[in-house]
Amino acid sequence: MLLPEIAKYVRRSENTLRWLRHQGGPDAPPLWKQGRRLVAWKSELDDWLDEQRQADSKAGERACSDMEAVRVKDYVRHLVETAPPLKPEVIEQLRALLFSS
Question: 61 with 69: CB under 8 angstroms?
Fold first, then answer.
């Protein structure tokens, strides 16, 4: 496939694809020069798009688990701070147990 076809297929501009290729790294599309043209195999583009999707879903999973941890911590902090009066040493033990990081 030629660059205009690739851009249309992956729904990114030609300039973005050139820039990603220039930057290199794991996010770079599998493009190479054939003479003066940038080209790619469709099967390699499909693999690259799958890798991008998998990387994004892993990032989303990490973000969700981090957000859940924050929500739980905030909820427990709220419970501890609004609970009926406890002995000060019990409160300190709970705070040390729950909020030390």
Answer: no
Give start and end residues of each alpha helix (H) in the chain: 3-10, 14-23, 42-82, 88-99
The number of beta carbons lying within 10 Å of the beta carbon of residue 31 is 20
92 by DSSP, 3-state: which?
A: helix
Q: Are 15 and 31 in contact (CB under 8 A)?
A: no
Q: What is the pLDDT along the chain (101 residues), one digit of tens a residue?
A: 999 999 999 999 999 999 999 988 878 899 999 999 999 999 999 999 988 888 877 666 665 566 666 677 777 777 777 777 778 888 788 888 888 76
The Cα-based distances of 71 to 5, 23, 35, 58, 97 in angstroms read 45, 37, 55, 20, 17
CB of 3 closer than 8 Å to CB of 31: yes
